[in-house]
UniProtKB/TrEMBL annotation:
Keywords: Signal. Residues 34-223 form the Spondin domain. One of its GO terms (cellular component) is extracellular matrix. PANTHER family: MINDIN1 (PTHR11311:SF33), SPONDIN (PTHR11311). This is Spondin 2a, extracellular matrix protein. GO terms for biological process: cell adhesion. InterPro entries: Spondin/Thrombospondin_T1, Spondin_N, Spondin_N_sf. The keyword Signal applies. The keyword Signal applies. Residues 1-27 form the signal peptide.
Length: 325
């Protein structure tokens, strides 16, 4: 009798274990209990404004003025869920992150994003135009879904070995509602794939690659580093991000994505017109130098005997060409 009861209890225990395993298998992964799960009933639209604060006043050390001057690459933004990572501090850079951080190329990142969309871990990807100055604005419109409420983005610093700014898995949803506005101050990161210490240093591949790390006023702890400011407790924000929710009806869609806002705070602009003018002046100066070499000393000596007014006029013209600004 006792043996029969034991067999029955054992059989029931085994059956209970099987039922629990089946329930867990069909239920899937447990939802987080810390309130990070988005339960909003509808999607949301946001205007994302990226602002660069990279100026010689804030970051005077080795500030790149030419070849190329300080500027920002195109911005790439991804809306996704907890199963996707564009980049992460302390983790190794993917091939897409490496290509973007070193060269500003988005091909590999876009490929990875398309594959993630097939798996429904990414809902949308956006790109904006680059900013030709260290100080300036760019913006885009991003659409967020309740199942993909996280936002990640990257912007490469140009010039730099493999440095970028960005955010990783910023949650724009809070419980059952979307956040109205979020502002984030951005700091530089090292992708860990290139060992250059300065903005314009040659390419030195890091072997083996290191993990993505944050650049601070004292890390890397080397005086040659462009961000090494040992007297500062922390670096000022080199860029910032403002994300504002849009409230409008579905029949009033406004196309605001992939454009550059007017740069009203820049103390100096590196425009193509100025560069072209300086190039023309340099070309003219080179022509004058060639002429001087061909004609020789006798010609220059002969010019001294000419009318003083003409000599002064010629010298003034040469001075204007040499220093036009």
């Amino acid at each position: 009798m006792m043996s029969s009861e034991r067999q029955t209890c054992s059989w029931r225990r085994q059956l209970l274990i099987v039922l629990v395993k089946l329930c867990l298998a069909f239920a899937g992964p447990l939802r987080p209990l810390n309130g990070t799960e988005c339960t909003a009933k509808s999607p949301a639209s946001y205007i994302l404004v990226f602002t660069g604060h990279w100026s010689p006043q804030s970051f005077p050390k080795q500030y790149p003025l030419f070849r190329p001057p300080a500027q920002w690459s195109k911005l790439i933004a991804v809306s996704h869920n907890h199963h996707f990572r564009l980049w992460e501090e302390g983790a190794a850079a993917s091939l897409g992150v490496q290509k973007f951080a070193e060269l500003g190329l988005t091909v590999e990142l876009m490929k990875a994003g398309k594959e993630a969309r097939k798996k429904r871990t990414v809902s949308a990807m956006q790109r904006t135009a680059g900013i030709p100055n260290g100080i300036g604005h760019s913006s885009t419109e991003v659409h967020m879904q309740p199942r993909s409420s996280l936002l990640s983005l990257m912007v490469k610093m140009i010039p730099s070995p493999d440095w970028f700014v960005g955010v990783n898995s910023l949650n724009l949803c809070e419980g059952n509602h979307w956040k109205q506005e979020v502002t984030v101050n951005l700091q530089p990161y090292d992708a860990g794939t290139n060992s250059g210490f300065t903005f314009s240093s040659p390419k030195f591949p890091t072997s083996p690659p290191e993990n993505i790390s944050k650049i601070t006023s004292q890390v890397p702890n080397h005086p040659a580093n462009s961000f090494y400011y040992p007297r500062l407790k922390e670096l000022p924000a080199i860029a910032s991000l403002k994300i504002t929710r849009q409230h409008r009806s579905a029949n009033r869609q406004t196309v605001l994505s992939n454009h550059i806002l007017p740069n009203s705070i820049s103390p100096r602009r590196f425009s193509g017109k100025v560069t072209g003018t300086l190039s023309l002046v340099q070309l003219l100066l080179k022509m004058f130098q060639i002429l001087e070499g061909v004609v020789g000393r006798d010609y220059r000596a002969e010019q001294k005997n000419k009318n003083k007014t003409q000599t002064i006029s010629w010298c003034h013209f040469y001075k204007v060409l040499k220093d036009p600004l």
